[in-house]
Amino acid sequence: MSYSVGEGGTKSRELVIIVHALNVASCFVGLTGLVAVIIAYLKRGEMGSDIWYDHLSFAIRTFWIGFVVSLIGLLTSFIGIGFLILMVVFVWYLVRTIFALLKAIENKPIPNPDSFLI
Description:
Elements: H1 9-26, H2 32-43, H3 50-75, H4 81-105
């Protein structure tokens, strides 16, 4: 499958890389993930091609799934299983965001942006 960068492709690519980098940083800083999802929502419609739109959709989906599962982990941490959930979601989020960042740097699409896994 062939993908074109489209109009404004370089700027779109740079924005996507920033969003993914903010998501990776959120594993250690926290609030940068919220900044990333806000940017992704605001800029998703302006992307020059489907490849970058899919990248931002992937970032938004990753944020919300991570947020909801982390909330479940926090709510169940008093019975012990929550800590396991939090560890699993941390690794899942980190792997997924690094994968997306590498794909953006390589100028490649996300294979299945609607996937729960990679």
